[in-house]
Amino acid sequence: MNVAILGVGTVGSEVANILIENKKLISARSGVKIVPLIGVVRNLNKQRNCKIPLSDDLNSVIDRNDIDVFVELMGGVEQPYRIINRILKKQKAVVTANKALLAYHRYSLQSLAGNTPFGFEASVAGGIPIIKALREGLSANKILKITGIMNGTSNYILTNMAQNGENFDIVLKKAQDLGYAEADPAFDIGGFDAAHKLLILASIAYGVHGNPEDILIEGIENITQEDIYFAKEFEFVIKLLTIAKRIDDENVELRVHPALVPQDKMLANVGGVMNAVSVYGDCVGETLFYGPGAGGKATASAVISDLIDIARGTKSPMLGYKMQNEIHQMKLLPACEIMTKYYLRLKVEDKKGVLAKITNIMSENNISIDSFLQKPKAKEESDVTLFFTTHTSFEKDIQNVIEILNTQSYLKQKVAMIRIEE
Predict the structure, then answer these.
(1) 207-244 pLDDT per residue, tens
(2) Which of 47, 93, 393, 421 could form a disulfide with 259 if both were Cys (CB 3.0 to 4.6 A apart)?
(3) What is the CATH number of the domain that holds 240?
């Protein structure tokens, strides 16, 4: 089985090298020789740790008749979509690690692929085989909930803030120096990378349509050491979570945001750059998948697992449904209708009656307080920091309360809010 690799960067180089170095093992498991025949790059003069011939002529490679599978590792959305369109129309198999492409075009690609193999295990959580788990291992289950830590950059930052007491900006710079964060880290720390992965998993679990713009996405850039202080006081850990939750037979909620997670939960103990995905099925209960969510070798491992499946003749439907029209596609619950518990941080004037005013605003707007903490202040400080947690409330009500509080004269900073996921 001959393979062309479109995009020979870190991951593409590892795919080629592993196929060569482990060829006997891979052949034994797949039943055929999987040969990385050629790679396509933009710049032939760039040094690469790669042992296969390279070309900068994409069109000529796509038109070759001796290629059986194309591995797309270019990145981007619209250009790879057009390229994969051409390949699928030739009824040639495709493997991709491109989560952004799938977040926007997964259903049209499924329609184009038909019975042509299309693998995308590497698009979610790197080396963790979560796509196969949902599509195959858990296929007898109604998926009740998926909760994941699926961005290693954000998890590294939050872990270090909690362990070392350092502020966000300092830890972000450290992550960039170590290569865990890009020079422009907005895609990771803003929650967008995790949201793309969540949409892919939700398509397999629930048949739900939707683009990143349709779901609640918040990043970690506003997390402070005061939030870390509260989390420790009340035995929580702050994590950037991806959450898909089946509400009923009609609706599913999808959201990505920082969350306070109880310290005794398995996800609370996932540190550093590692990823983990917790899946609740109605038959099996909770299962947890843990491992490296990024990196050349881990992602290449997932790419090659798809190549082996194709070589074996495995014909799993792309999104897990052989009869897509026979299932009821669930709808996205509007973000305002989400219900959960909340944490609020307020910096206010240290004056009599302020606390009563705050609690009255909450009470008048359907927010019930669960716990309250006032952070000790230094003698020279004239303001005080208050922490609240709420009972389960509607997102629309908490947003209304925040909007009202932000207009009050005694408030010294805008209200900070983090959702609580127990």
Answers:
(1) 898 999 999 999 999 999 999 999 999 999 999 999 99
(2) 421
(3) 3.30.360.10
Give the closest residue to 290 by CA, choosing from 129, 162, 163, 145.
129
Same domain, 185 and 255: yes
C-alpha–C-alpha distance, residues 16 and 198, integer Å? 28
Query: What kind and span of H or E run contains 168?
Result: helix 168-177
Going from the C-alpha of 42 to that of each of 7, 57, 58, 239, 295, the distances in angstroms are: 8, 8, 9, 37, 21
Residue 262 CB partners (closer than 8 Å, separation 6+): 235, 236, 237, 268, 422
Domain assignment present for 24? no
6 annotated as a binding-site residue: yes
Same domain as 285, residue 157? yes
Quote the tokens at residue 182. 């890009």
Q: How far is CA 159 from CA 219, 266, 341, in A?
A: 15, 15, 22
Per-residue pLDDT tens digits for 177-195:
988 888 899 999 999 999 9
Two structure tokens written together for 76? 């981007």
Please report, for the domain that includes residue 344, its CATH number.
Answer: 3.30.70.260
Judgement on whether residues 236 and 170 belong to the same structural domain of the protein? yes
Q: Is 13 annotated as a binding residue?
A: yes
- Structure confidence at residue 316 (pLDDT): 79
Q: Is 352 annotated as a binding residue?
A: no
Q: Specify if 216 maps to a domain.
A: yes
- Same domain? For 268 and 195 the reply is yes
Which residues constitute the domain of residue 355? 335-420
Residue 119 marked as a ligand binder: no
Q: What is the pLDDT of residues 131-151, one digit of tens each?
A: 999 999 999 999 999 999 999
pLDDT in tens, 351-401: 999 999 999 999 999 999 999 999 887 777 789 999 999 999 999 999 999
Query: Residue 324: which pLDDT band, with cuts at 50, 70 and 90?
Result: low
DSSP sequence for 173-235: HHHHHTTSS-SS-HHHHTTHHHHHHHHHHHHHHH-----GGGSEE--STT--HHHHHHHHHTT
The number of folded domains in the chain is 2
Q: What is the pLDDT of residues 262-313, one digit of tens each?
A: 999 999 999 999 999 999 999 999 999 999 988 889 999 999 999 999 999 9
Residue 126 assigned ligand-binding role: no
CB 244 within 8 A of CB 253: yes
